[in-house]
Each structure stands twice: as structure tokens, then as C-alpha cells.
# Entry
Amino acid sequence: MQTSFAGPKFAVIDKKTETGHQTSPFKAPANKDYTSLLNISTKFNGLGGNTSSLAIKKQKEQTKPKKTGVYWASKSIESTLFKKYYDRGDLPIAVNSQGANRKVQWKLEPELLDYHLYLPIFFEGLREVEEPYKFLAFQGCDELLERGGSKILPVLPQLIIPIKKALSTKRHDILCVTFKKLQKLVLANEMIGEALVPYYRQILPVFNLFRHKKLNIGDKIDYAQQKNENLGELIQETLEIFERHGGEDAYINIKYMIPTYESCMF
# Structure
């Protein structure tokens, strides 16, 4: 008869650890359910393994596009040669304040002046906004164009840069004055309108920008109508003068730079 040996039996004795706490054998909680650990579908519910996130994206703040400022007027205007020459006493012109209205007093008759020197300087003064430079430049330019005759045509290439600078300011008052001076320039001599055609590409872009800027006041009265400061109408009048006095190629070149322009001759 065989006998089985169960081995020595040891009693479990509770001892205290070094920290003073009493140790006891591990006991599983009575009410805890461990069956969910084996259910993978309920255990791994994260979105890290997906190819694309299903979380709601944060909406970015919509910012308005910046304005180009193509119609904005220049805040500051560079000092002109007209002001420099007048302060230095090199211009044969002064203000005559006798009487009710101011007048231009010439120290030398305009017909005797060197137009190659003085006419471009007076066109430089079209950008002036301070007195008395503004008054002298505007009135002096008018009288030089009225009394210049055949002296104006050879000076035309020297006038393009001052005219372009005045138009590039995009200030309403300077633009109005420049358009009026361009009309008088073309009407001063029969050949000037045709000679101005090759320079349309330099001066007409500003015409195209402000061509449709017309004053719309409804049924109200425009009390400043006699000043002729409606920008859109001024541009239309100037373009029509260019076409009438510019020869055969005037309309084609105007149409190239201003596609919405319609001929006044046909």
C-alpha cells in the first residue's frame, strides 16, 4: 500500500513591513466584473487608429481681404520745383492784390519767356495745395497756354512727367485742375492734340480709374456746378477733346487704354 507525501505544511503568519503596515494575502473584490476586459470592441473606443479624424474641426476666423488702396489719394505731396523757384525769386511772377480779385503780375511779358524752362515748372506747380503757390501756378499756367502759340508744341515732351505726377496724386482737387489744363493745352495749338497721342499710355490709366466717378445727388441742386468739379464729366469732356483734335489714331489709342469709351465722332 502506497502512501502519498503532502510535504510540510507552513502556517501563514501576518508580518509587518518596514513601513509599519500589515500585509495580508491578495483578495479579489467581490462585486467586480472582469468579463469586459475580454471584449475588445468595448475596450478600444479611441480615434487614434482611424485614417482620418472624425472630431469636429475648429472653425478658423474669416478675415476680410485687405484693401488695395488703388483709389486712395496721396497723403503727402513732394515739394515741387515751382515752390523752390518762387521762394528763390527765379520766377518772373507775383501776386497783384489790388482790387477785389487777385491777379497775376508778370515782371516780363509771357511771350518773351523761355517756354522750355518756365512752362514745365508751371505744370509742376499743379500739385501745389498751399497759397500763394497754388494760385500763381494755376493762373500762370493758363496765361502761358493762352499766349504761348507756337512755342508750346516743342515743349510738349517736357510736360508729360509733371502731368503724370499730378495725376498720380489722385487727389480730387488736383485731378480736376489737371484735366482742365489738359483741355487748354490741346486747344492751344492745332498740332498739340495729335502730338499728344503717343503719350496716352502714360496719362490715360488714371482716366480709366476715375471715369465712372460721377456725382449722383438725385433731384437735389448742385450749387457747385459752375466750378465744373464733377470728376467723371471732366474726364469725359477731356477724352472727347482728345479724340476731336488727336487725328485718325486718337480713338484707337483711347479705346485701347479705356475699353468702355465710346466715340463722340460717329
Summary: The longest helix spans residues 133-148. The first strand starts at residue 93 and ends at 96.
